[in-house]
Amino acid sequence: MAEELPRCFDPYLRYAIASEFKNFDFFDAQESKLFLFVELKHAGLAGDFVRAMSRDIFGAEFGTASPKSRHLTMRAYKAAIEQESFRAWNDNVSRVELSLPLKPTVIKKGVPRVRSASATAPTSLLIGVIDDGCPFAAAQFCKLTAGVATGTRVLGIWDQNEDPARAPIPVGPNVFGEKPFDFNYGLEFFRESVPGMIGLDDWIQLYKRANTIDEDGCYADAGFKTLNHQRSHGAHVMDVLAGRIPPSARIVRRDPPSWNPGDSLTDPASAADIVFVQFPESCLRDATGVWLKGYVADGIEYIMSFVDSRITNVVINVSYGPTTGPHDGTAPLEEKLRELVTYYDGTPGNPKLDIFLSAGNTYLSEGHVRFVRQSMADPDHVEWTWRLPPDNTVLCFAEVWMKKNHSDNVVVTLTSPGGCSSSSTTGPAPPGPPPPPPAVPALPPYTGAYAPVDWGDNRVWLLAVEPTIAGAGMVPEHGNWKIKVEGIEAGSEVHAYVARTDPNMNMRTGAKRSYFVDARWETARAAEAGCKYAGGEFDKTGSLVSRLGTLNGIGTDSVAGVHVAGGYILSAPKRKSPYSSAGRARTGPLPRRVGPDYALFCDESDALQGVRAGGNRSGAVFRLVGTSAAAPQLARLVANGVSLTAHDPPTSPPDEKRGDGDLYPP
Predict the structure, then answer these.
(1) Three-point CA angle 616, 617, 620, nearest 5°
(2) Are both 293 and 181 inside the same structural domain?
(3) Residue 440 pLDDT more than 70?
(4) How far is it, in rounded angstroms, from Cα 552 to Cα 98?
(5) For bias kind Pro residues, which ranges apply (predicted)?
(6) What is the average per-residue pLDDT within 555-580?
């Protein structure tokens, strides 16, 4: 069936179809809906595609999209990717990617509303955060009027969780929360009460005790599970970007921290309205990020639905980024971001939109291989190890990328530690009765190298290994798997990326990290390289495993309006944080990003890592380690209109590690 699928289907959608959605625990072919991120051949085909998918058996619903957009989010039954739909896909769509399916609930969607309508004037700056955990009742997000707290600065929350247990909460004759009328999944909450629905301000008042707020009860009764913890990724990011106390006031330098709050005149981010989009728990439990694209696209469109003529600037921080993808600026979500910042360019009638991404934390994670066959004298093949941990509870994916016009004869082979191989010419074996006897070596079903897929001017091979934890049926071996790429033309370049699997904050999944190893380099060069330490890192010269080229998979397009932030160590100028990912992007049809735009403070010293900012309760702070703390700092600087002048710039800016140099924290 794989050969008959529309060419626009992405490798993960093909994998899901081939494996009959085996690894989607909650997927029900009759009730669940696939969540698809669709890129049309051109914007004018949107109407044709929607009409072609309007049949009842498809059950297709489409999210809101900006004018003249080539990109749509679509939720539909499994029939929408079966034979009867193929013509619609082939005629109208250039690429489609699978996000994590969802199971619709019977909750009725809310009535159409104008989200920008408000009894109080909005701030001219709107801040959007797409993350996990929004402590809307915390003191750092209070709206102050003449120095008195009058409610929350959180203008709206969209919780994207689609769960039968996550229903609007009755409050007398009203409810708290409703299903968005235009996206039709999850629940949204407004700051102000509207007929039939109480707002965040009135909900907070229900938990007021004398001069304090019972934040524990406020969040627990509202059903925000992430806020049951003392800390969350979203709370920290939101505080760095828009909290009352800016990051610079919390830093220990020669003097103690000042803890002085920001002034709304010089630090408008400290008083700006906020719209928060909460990622679904099911997506956060899968750390690869390959399933989140549609949710991110919808989240940005949701934030923009709060904009009216009174809002002139919108700053959105997206704490998300896969380690996989083409890394040349052409991933569909990168194209969507480019489309958005090009449309919302600050011209009359349009706000200025800036989107901020973290560079990533994979510089030392051994998840990227780069090989170039320099000349005909070099071998036409390359081989390396993919090390998979034991008792891993999640799927492991790797991708091999090459330019399409130089890879017609390329074959990718995945070999298990026991010597069983799967070639991209045949693909993984489907399940078939009876299972082989224990003495006969074989790979489990759906584990192996899949046939290549043409993706723009690239060609990609997906490699998949099922969870290695013991279970019913055949279980893949853990240990050293071999990846071999053969038939490489002279002058051609091979890149491979491992999909991240280590768990997100507050998630207990049993997932473990897999990574690449260059066995020949380890044998011949590793001991010598271990004696060479400079700039905070050991030498890796000559290894197939490359630390460069590890930028966030949706942060490789060099377009004004999309900003990428790396990290540096405050006490060691000109030294990036050891984990902070670096460029360059692969060569592609668009201007490629050399590295992050700038580096922002992520660690106070080698010993004191992380940035201190707020947790899920008023007054609580913790340190978050990673470039997720850098992106909101850069966003705050831009939101405040600060001139971005780097101190300690690199010798030849921009460079792969620190871009144009280090910026002081806001």
Answers:
(1) 95
(2) yes
(3) no
(4) 19
(5) 428-440
(6) 93
For 281-335, write each residue's pLDDT tens digit: 888 887 677 778 999 999 999 999 999 999 999 999 998 889 999 999 999 999 9
Structural domain harbouring 378: 374-538
- Could you tell me the CA-to-CA distances from 576 to 200, 237, 460, 648 in Å, in that order? 40, 20, 31, 11
Question: What's the distance, CA 244 to chain centroid?
Answer: 27
- The 3-state DSSP class for residue 634 equals helix
Pairing of strands 148-152, 533-534: unpaired
| Whether residue 98 is found in the same domain as residue 177 | no
- Are residues 524 and 554 both part of a single domain? no
Under 8 Å between Cβ of 351 and 315: no
d(CA 561, CA 546): 28
Lowest-confidence region among 22-31, 329-338, 613-622: 22-31
Q: Which residues contact 607 (CB under 8 A, 6 or more apart)?
A: none
Q: How far is CA 436 from CA 428, 443, 570, in A?
A: 15, 10, 58
Does residue 117 lie within any of the structural domains? no
Same domain for 309 and 170: yes
Which region among 236-250, 356-370, 399-413, 440-454 has the lowest average model confidence (pLDDT)? 440-454
Query: Where among 66, 87, 102 does a domain terminate?
Result: 102
The strand pair at 368-372 and 493-498 is best described as antiparallel
Q: Which residues contact 659 (CB under 8 A, 6 or more apart)?
A: 564, 566, 594, 595, 596, 597, 598, 599, 653
Cβ 307 vs Cβ 126: under 8 Å? yes
The length of the chain, given as a count of residues: 666
Q: How many domains does the chain have?
A: 3
- Domain of 343: which CATH number? 3.40.50.200
- Same domain flag for 136 and 270: yes
pLDDT in tens, 124-164: 999 999 999 999 999 999 998 877 888 999 999 999 998 88
Look at strands 33-40 and 533-534 and give their pairing.
Answer: unpaired
Q: What's phi and psi for 210, nearest 5 deg?
A: 55, -115
User: What is the rounded distance in angstroms from the CA atom of residue 207 to the CA atom of residue 657?
Assistant: 47
Residue 205: inside a domain: no
- Distance separating alpha carbons of residues 116 and 31, to the nearest angstrom: 34
Burial 264-280 (b: 16+ CB within 10 A, else e): eeebbbbbbbbbbbbbb
Angle separating helix axes 332-343 and 293-304, nearest 10 degrees: 10
9 SS3 class: strand
Q: Which residues contact 549 (CB under 8 A, 6 or more apart)?
A: 327, 368, 370, 495, 582, 583, 584, 585, 586
215 Cβ contact list (under 8 Å, min separation 6) = 135, 137, 138, 207, 616, 617, 618
pLDDT value at 25 more than 70: no
Q: How far apart are CA 32 and CA 290, in angstroms?
A: 19
